[in-house]
Amino acid sequence: MPALGLGTWLADPGKVHQAARHALEAGYLHIDCAAIYGNEEEVGQGIAEAIEAGDITRDELFVTSKLWNDSHKPEHVRPAIEKTLDDLGLEQLDLYLIHWPIAFRHGVEFPQSREDYLTLEEAPLEETWKAMMELKEAGLTKHIGVSNMGPERLQALAEVGEMPAVVQVECHPHLQQRELLDFCNEHDILLTAYSPLGSPGRQHKAGDEPPLLDHPTITSIADELDATSAQVLIAWAMARDTVVIPKSTNPGRIEENFGALDVELTDEHMAEIAKLDKGYRYLDGEFFADEKSPYEASKIWV
Ligand code: NDP
């Protein structure tokens, strides 16, 4: 799995087609998608054009997508990947993830009331996982994994079949995920770091940590290495042997982020950045754990 990929969440329709196209031309070998991002058709166009232009072959490219929360019932899993494959214009994914350990009634994109949710007793993740294993056997995806889960859930899934190959979670200097990373290293699971720049494009809440890109430790390392803050954050993720998927639809920033492959942090830099861990989530799961939800935020990432 290529260590650096292009994120596509909140990549505006009309922009993400060119972003995918540009990234593949610039050398990216990996794109992170999801059905709920509502832009897989456009990403697919960018991929098709890059293949057509000879910038990349399908075999060189690694494409990830994710099963949305309304399709956890085993009978909805295969139709969901088929829709994603159709939208992306691909015959097989490289990696398909269960997006969240949270289930909605079929057809609900974002819940409006308690009735829009299913509990984990009504839609057990273990059953969804068995359906994911069938997708792999059917050749619709090469690998399967999960997102927004921790060691307890990973272990429970392994007990009904195979261990997830990848776990994709929020990870950056303020949320270093050391316990999960140790578990992954022990069980041969790859950790993919999402929101590696602290997701600065998202609407932030009062009381959020200031943007990571402006943190003095990060900016001073960037100055020392003649790099940018974004490159330091991306290089930090790769130096920890995690996969990292910064999102950009801006051609200059897409190239800048790719340039992180040439940035080498020293042990001293890594030690400085290690001190920034606060267990702080920019994406705190509040949107799935408000008063109408049967889920509790503190139990999402177990
Ligand atoms: P990131 O941390 O990647 O930040 C993206 C934001 O940073 C955008 O607003 C982008 O703007 C800006 N940006 C990108 N590059 C630079 C740069 N070099 N300098 C300054 N600003 C920059 O946040 P995301 O939350 O998007 O996370 C990355 C990807 O991870 C997502 O796109 C998605 O694919 C995945 N993800 C998965 C989740 C899950 O539940 N599994 C949840 C969240 C994310 P611009 O586009 O204008 O450059």
Please explain how this structure is put together.
The chain has 302 residues and is an alpha/beta fold. It has one domain (6-299): TIM Barrel, CATH 3.20.20. Helices cover 36% and strands 13% of the residues. The chain has ten helices and ten strands. The chain has helices at residues 16-26, 40-52, 74-88, 125-137, 151-159, 178-187, 216-225, 229-239, 251-258, 267-274; strands at 6-7, 30-32, 62-67, 93-98, 103-104, 117-118, 141-147, 166-170, 190-194, 243-244. An eight-stranded parallel sheet has the order 1-2-3-4-7-8-9-10. Helix 1 links the parallel strand 1 (6-7) and strand 2. Helix 1 (16-26) packs parallel to helix 2 (40-52), helix 2 packs across helix 3 and helix 3 packs across helix 4. The longest helix has 15 residues, at 74-88. It is globular, with a radius of gyration of 19 Å. The mean pLDDT is 96. Bound molecules: NADPH dihydro-nicotinamide-adenine-dinucleotide phosphate (NDP). The site of NADPH dihydro-nicotinamide-adenine-dinucleotide phosphate has 30 residues, from helix 9. Belongs to the aldo/keto reductase family. The record marks 66 as: Lowers pKa of active site Tyr. GO terms for molecular function: oxidoreductase activity. This is Aldo/keto reductase.
